[in-house]
Specification:
α13 runs antiparallel to α14, α28 packs parallel to α30 and α32 packs parallel to α34. The N and C termini lie far apart (107 Å). It is built from 46 helices and no strands. With 841 residues, the protein is mainly alpha-helical. It is elongated, with a radius of gyration of 46 Å.
Length: 841
């Protein structure tokens, strides 16, 4: 049995080290104290006529019927120490004699004689024959007898190395290790090649723990170790799937002064790439090149792959140019990794170009290459190209995987091509490659679209197709029903989940709680939380935030605060989102002082406020008419280096406008433009309303024109505010023109704009036109309000047309409107000679 087998599962690096080891073993005995070269053909035994005279006399004097004792054989061997050839043949003759009991001592004496005289082949053959035989001595006995007999004749320490090797070659690895231990105890240290051979045998036999003990004992005792030793123990770490230990051994040996070779670097780079740790891999690679060691193709492959896995795409592409630009040929693994790198960077065109170059250079893409590129197309918004690759993949005889179908389906759903997505889903089901993830993608999309009936059909189809639903499948259905506010069906799915033995997880419970909170069923939501705790399912941050947010939105901020303190005692660390929910609830309740206290608690805990926090505070202060504090919050945001978002600017502008501070509002508006934000309809409406209130219709109209020029939508509120301002400014023609423009844009008027028109026209004396708008309201089935009828009734009373005034009163009753005190005052108490007052907006 050879020490190294051609079928060994060792890495290429170790096989190369093995070749160096065998080559080094072939030197002559004069070159090395530990010559282990062994010919596969043993030295032939000599013929009897070649015996020395002493041996001849011994054989001649032996009577055929007498017993040959081991002591006598040992005595003869010792007398012929200087004639190893005769001693060997005498031992061979003795073994054949009837009644001779072969002893270990005679064998050991002969081994010493042969080793000392450089009869290496004969000694090795003799050892192998005895170690492999049925009556082989135990390792401890053989070593002990070798040590004892070495005192009877001059010995060569190499014989101990040969013993270890013989046990290894015989497959008796445990015995080889026992020999090694006994030799260490006796102070006969085996040479480095023997130590490496034993280490190799232990690793090949998957005796990893003993291999580690051997290696660490070598290091602790200060035995010489070389790169082969290190490479072998690192390989053991790989077999144990502990690459981090391989890195640890490399660093330790390097710090001990070992000069690393290319194989050691290649192996440690492979180890750090397993984690992956692309930064360490790149550092080792640079260190390797600094020592003028040449990285091999696999090394670059490992490092580039690690960079891609960790998202270090720029470094991956640099290494590609360095390693494969001119030195090494591109391979499939590298090409696939680089395709993924380009896809992650969003450079889909470059990924597709590289894919084409692969094919042109003779590299055949596999299913991984296609899957990576198809996934890249989906994530970069090119579903059509992904489908082309899918067809190309099938044409090449590569069956698409569920991963491929999942990417394609997600891509088409993202592109709002639901028919193509469903067709691919049906294809995946028909090909029997649809996984539970594939079904879950479709179920989630249908639930998101509110198509719960279809989602349930797909769920049932999954069961019929032999695919077991997962917790995610049930969670999607529960989420869909919760979004629709159908908590009865959500609860039904939850119960079915339990009945089927599927354990609800933290997402399940949190989703149900959120659904109940949004529907206002706070007690039921808290009951679900209680069930969750009874089942000892640990809540996560989403759970805690759901409860805090739900209580806050339900106006139970004091309970939310108490719950927060309780959660924090259990180890929950509140986030900015947690405090934002409470702030929003408190501000909606009008409890600004409590909101400020929560804000201070937030900063004390070291939770930095975000834009939503400040926006909520600004909006609350503005609605509470506390513009000074709102502006202070704005200034604090800028001090913290946070940029206001559009809702924050909108809230601040609206507050300033309602407070009549149009100069301040305009300054904030200018700041909004300077930071690169585009004002929306809400911002413009606030400014237009502010200028209307100050009767500055020129500025209001100017903003209106700007809205139109910038393509910002003018809504019903925009036209209502402008028409009201224009009527107040006695610009009736322009007001009616804007009303016509609004109708032409397809904007449907409501009772508010009719109230503005009718009241404003009546105030300006355009009673008939006002009356026409009332008739238009009736024609469009827009119910008038009491204010409109009061205005028109007052006009007819003023004209003395009491019949029309009372007819309008009856019409108001027909609409189901209840006359107010003002209506009765106009009809009953106003004398004809007095002017009837006109009710304003």
């Amino acid at each position: 049995m050879k020490l190294y087998s051609a079928n060994s599962p060792l890495s290429p690096a170790i096989l190369r080290s093995r070749a160096r080891f065998l080559t080094s073993c072939s030197v002559s005995t004069s070159q090395s104290q530990e010559d282990l070269s062994v010919s596969p053909i043993p030295e032939p035994y000599l013929k009897l006529d070649e015996f020395g005279s002493t041996i001849e006399r011994e054989i001649a004097s032996h009577r055929s019927n007498s017993v040959l004792t081991q002591d006598h054989v040992i005595e003869v061997l010792l007398r012929n120490q200087n004639d190893p050839r005769s001693a060997l043949n005498y031992f061979k003759w003795a073994e054949k004699q009837r009644g001779f009991v072969r002893g270990v001592d005679a064998l050991c004496i002969l081994l010493h004689i042969l080793t000392k005289s450089r009869r290496i082949q004969a000694a090795h053959f003799l050892l192998n024959r005895h170690v492999s035989g049925n009556s082989s001595p135990s390792a401890s006995v053989l070593i002990d007898r070798l040590l004892d007999t070495s005192q009877k004749c001059s010995s060569d320490s190499r014989v101990f190395n040969y013993v270890v090797h013989s046990f290894i070659e015989a497959g008796r690895i445990e015995d080889a290790a026992e020999c090694f231990d006994r030799l260490i105890e006796s102070g006969n240290i085996p040479g480095i090649r023997t130590r490496n051979a034993l280490l190799t045998a232990l690793v090949k036999a998957n005796m990893m723990q003993k291999a580690r003990v051997l290696f660490e004992e070598m290091v602790v005792r200060g035995f010489d170790c070389d790169c082969f030793t290190l490479d072998m123990i690192m390989h053991a770490c790989f077999k144990e799937e502990k690459p981090e230990d391989a890195v640890k051994y490399f660093r330790e040996m390097r710090s001990n002064g070992m000069e690393m070779d290319a194989t050691a670097y290649n192996t440690v780079i492979r180890a750090v790439c397993k984690k992956p740790d692309s930064r360490a891999a790149c550092e080792f690679l640079e260190e390797m090149k600094d020592k003028n060691l040449v990285p091999c193709e696999s090394t670059y492959t490992y490092v580039i792959g690690a960079c891609v896995k960790q998202g270090n795409m720029i470094e991956a592409l640099r290494l590609k140019d360095e390693g494969f630009g001119s030195k090494l040929p591109m391979n499939l693994v590298i090409a696939t990794s680089l395709v993924k790198a380009y896809c992650v960077l969003g450079n889909l065109d470059r990924a597709l170009d590289l894919f084409t170059q692969m094919i042109e250079s003779g590299i055949t893409p596999n299913k991984v290459t296609f899957s990576v590129l198809i996934d890249g197309c989906y994530k970069n918004g090119n579903a059509r190209k992904a489908y082309e690759l899918h067809e190309q993949m099938k044409a090449a005889g590569i069956p698409p995987t569920f991963f491929t179908y999942n990417s394609l389906i997600l891509g088409f759903l993202k592109a709002n091509c639901s028919q193509e997505a469903m067709r691919l889903f049906d294809e995946a089901v028909e090909c029997k490659v649809a996984s539970v993830v594939t079904y879950n993608i479709i179920i989630y999309w249908l639930c998101k679209e509110g198509r719960m009936g279809e989602a349930c059909n797909i769920f049932d189809k999954m069961a019929y197709g032999g695919v077991e639903p997962s917790e995610v499948s049930y969670n999607h259905l529960i989420l869909g029903y919760c979004r629709q506010g159908n908590m009865d069906l959500a609860s039904k799915v939850f119960n079915e989940m339990n009945d089927r033995g599927m354990k609800p997880n933290v997402i399940t419970y949190s989703t149900l709680m959120d659904g109940y909170f949004k529907k206002g069923e706070v007690d039921q939501a808290l009951s679900v939380h209680g069930q969750m705790m009874q089942r000892r399912i640990c809540p996560n941050d989403y759970t805690f935030n759901t409860i805090i947010s739900g209580l806050s939105k339900a106006g139970k901020t004091s309970e939310a605060d108490a719950m927060l303190k309780n959660f924090m005692s259990e180890g929950f660390i509140p986030t900015c989102m947690t405090f934002n929910s409470m702030l929003d609830g408190l501000i909606k309740e009008g409890s600004m002082s409590t909101a400020l206290a929560i804000y201070r608690d937030m900063t004390k805990l070291g939770v930095p406020p975000n834009v939503i926090t400040y926006t909520t505070m600004i909006d609350g202060f503005c609605k509470g008419n506390n513009i000074y504090l709102a502006q202070s919050v704005h200034n604090e945001m800028k001090m913290r280096g946070l940029d206001l978002d559009l809702p924050a600017y909108s809230a601040l502008i609206d507050g300033l406008c309602k407070n009549g501070n149009m100069r301040g509002a305009h300054e904030v508006f200018s700041e909004l433009l300077e930071v690169g934000l585009s004002p929306n309809t809400i911002v413009y409406n606030s400014l237009i309303s502010g200028f209307r209130n100050q009767r500055n219709m020129e500025a209001a109209i100017s903003l209106f024109r700007r809205m139109c020029d910038e393509g910002v939508e003018c809504d019903l509120a925009t036209y209502t505010t402008l028409i009201d301002g224009l009527l107040r400014a006695d610009n009736v023609p322009f007001a009616l023109e804007l009303y016509s423009e609004m109708l032409n844009k397809g904007i449907t008027p409501d009772h508010i704009i009719y109230t503005v028109l009718i009241n404003g026209l009546c105030e300006k004396g355009h009673w008939e036109t006002a009356r026409e708008f009332l008739e238009e309201m009736n024609g469009k089935n827009v119910p008038p309000n009491v204010c409109i009828y009061n205005t028109l009734i007052a006009i007819y009373v003023k004209e003395g047309n009491l019949d029309e005034a009372f007819r309008l009163h009856d019409e108001m009753l027909e609409w189901g409107l209840v006359p107010d005190d003002r209506t009765l005052d106009i009809l009953v108490n106003s004398p004809l000679e007095k002017n009837a007052s006109v009710v304003g907006v």
